[in-house]
Amino acid sequence: MSPSTFSLSELLAPVHSGLEAMRCILSAELSGEGLVGERTAHVARFRGKELRAAMVLLSGQATGRSTPEHPQVAAVLELIHLATLVHDDVLDGADVRRSLPSVHSVWDEQTAILMGDMLYSRAFHLSTCLDSNLAARVLSKSAQRICAGELEQAARRYDFNMPQADYEEIASAKTAELYAAACELGARYPDAPSQLPAPVAKLMRIFGEELGLAFQIIDDVLDLTGEASVVGKSVGNDVEDGKVTLPVLHVYANVDETTRKAIRDAYQGPCDGGRMALLRVACDLTPGLEFARNRAYGLLTQALQRLQTLPDSDARRSLVQITEYVASRQK
Amino acid sequence: MSPSTFSLSELLAPVHSGLEAMRCILSAELSGEGLVGERTAHVARFRGKELRAAMVLLSGQATGRSTPEHPQVAAVLELIHLATLVHDDVLDGADVRRSLPSVHSVWDEQTAILMGDMLYSRAFHLSTCLDSNLAARVLSKSAQRICAGELEQAARRYDFNMPQADYEEIASAKTAELYAAACELGARYPDAPSQLPAPVAKLMRIFGEELGLAFQIIDDVLDLTGEASVVGKSVGNDVEDGKVTLPVLHVYANVDETTRKAIRDAYQGPCDGGRMALLRVACDLTPGLEFARNRAYGLLTQALQRLQTLPDSDARRSLVQITEYVASRQK
């Protein structure tokens, strides 16, 4: 895999107009008056790279299945993503999101819970305005898997003996599912009864799942190694929160009981950022980080192979470059 | 209006088999294995009178619009209702629901937030399995109105000068909306393109809105007057939470400044149940309670008049009796 030398906006050039259309729809959904309008306007500022929306559009173009409704499908996905962010910040007690105060920091937890519910409901309502109910069907299943993953993650805190498969299912549920759904919907929407279910839609779902899982694994690596100033958010959060991620699981499985105890103690250290420092003293994380990076690169290599079955196109080249971008990301 | 002398299960006899079908669908949605299954099994124990589901079925029968899918529409409504209950308990910090510990008391707030999201997503998924997307469209709008009402309510705490119309919009949004949607869907589902939109569906929505608003006003009266042992939950919660309901608004508008100050001070009293006692000392609530009860009876009388335009049937008689039941309820 060659390192990415493109900026993200260059990579997304083939779907520039589709993304513009998506942003118009999303802005309309995030506008409003009065109390609710003021709160949604704040949430609108959390809009980021809109990578999930881009995947819907690129997947549609790369498989020759684009429709005029694809930007709206993409907007539904971004709304669900925003809903999960608002609730995630409550779950994690995170006060900052994209260098802005999170909803519960500006107002309170009650407001954040209700605003998340509001965004979910708007997403589902927008999906019912589409000609086909495929997006509503797929994404209401996605939302369930995301919740199940978060519940499982919370229950598995401080579980140093978690099998890698369980870690990966949690990471897939909370992160890869929306990428998988985006790629599937791009290649499958509207799934008209006259069309045979396209095998390419299955292929694109798997591509999205591999890309998304690799994305999350790299996120977990950066949380252990990154500099807050580069990553753009505080790091060491997983150790603070008792989340045992792949690098630590790998190290833990391969050290003696004395080191294991030191690792467990580090996770119970003072919760003011001190746990990360203790963990670095307790063990050498290098082999675990190496193992996790290799797993992510392996997934991304598989993901690239899926794309080889698609005909050459600008959109396909973008998907290849996004995969390389994920591999090389430092934030 | 004659006082109700029937038990609720007698009133619901005309839709007995539909309710049984609804319960089967709901039970399937609330079953599952592992971690999520265990948590949904707990939520399933919060199922109560299932009055909203009954309204879907009765409204369908009374207007001659029943379909084999009506029980599933009713199940979607109950799922959304359960989702709101789980999040409401977090918002209100309520530890008990139907004499059982609330989700966040058994597990934690994180679990309760995620389980509410899970139930919303299941509700929307179930709605996408219906032949028509009418239920999904109507109920995703309902969910938005419920959230907006709760947000407004939170922002208007300690607002003793709130106009009655604002109080009623909040009460309608958080409670009447689901009754209104239930009655509308019963009379309108599936809203086939070949059918003209039935004026009767509009009429039934208004009936549901009036019934639901009256229900909430009586709830607010009982919170000020009821005995915990009769109502089945703790009372005086609104005063504890700073919610200024119709009886208090009416009293406040009609007393001198000294009494007003005493009322405001009561709402700031010690929050261990002492505020209700202080409020009783601060003012005579009787005229406010009378005013609120009269408003509720007025709404219920209007609601009964809506039903007069329907042909006589067992279902219509049930709707009349449910309206009388709401008027006479002590819990």
CATH homologous superfamily designation of chain A: Farnesyl Diphosphate Synthase
Name the pair of protein chains with the most residues at their interface, and give those residue counts: A-B, 37 and 37 residues
Indicate the multimeric state.
homodimer
Catalogue the unreliable spans of chain A. Answer: none
Q: What is the strand arrangement across the widest sheet of chain A?
A: 1-2
Order of helix and strand elements from N to C terminus of chain A: HHHHHEEHHHHHHHHHHHH
Radius of gyration of chain A (Å)? 20 Å
CATH C-level class of chain A: Mainly Alpha
Helicity range of the residues of chain A? over 70%
Number of helices of chain A: 17
User: What distance separates the N and C termini of chain A?
Assistant: 19 Å
Structural class of chain A: mainly alpha
Shape of chain A: globular
Count of separate structural domains of chain A: 1
Range of strand content of chain A: under 5%
Mean pLDDT over all positions of chain A:
92
- Report the strand count of chain A: 2
The largest β sheet of chain A comes out as: 2 strands, antiparallel
Describe the SSE topology:
The structure is a homodimer of 331-residue chains.
Chain A: H1 8-11, H2 16-29, H3 34-44, H4 51-62, H5 70-92, E1 96-97, E2 100-101, H6 103-106, H7 109-128, H8 134-155, H9 164-188, H10 199-225, H11 228-231, H12 237-241, H13 246-253, H14 257-267, H15 274-282, H16 286-307, H17 314-328
Antiparallel strand pairs in A: 1-2
Question: Can you walk me through this structure?
Answer:
The structure is a homodimer of 331-residue chains. Chain A is an all-alpha fold and 331 residues long. Chain A has one domain (8-324): Orthogonal Bundle (Farnesyl Diphosphate Synthase), CATH 1.10.600.10. Helices cover 71% and strands 1% of the residues of chain A. Chain A has helices spanning 8-11, 16-29, 34-44, 51-62, 70-92, 103-106, 109-128, 134-155, 164-188, 199-225, 228-231, 237-241, 246-253, 257-267, 274-282, 286-307, 314-328, and strands spanning 96-97, 100-101. In chain A, strand 1 (96-97) and strand 2 (100-101) form a beta hairpin. The model of chain A has no long low-confidence stretch (mean pLDDT 92). The interface between A and B is large, with 37 and 37 residues.
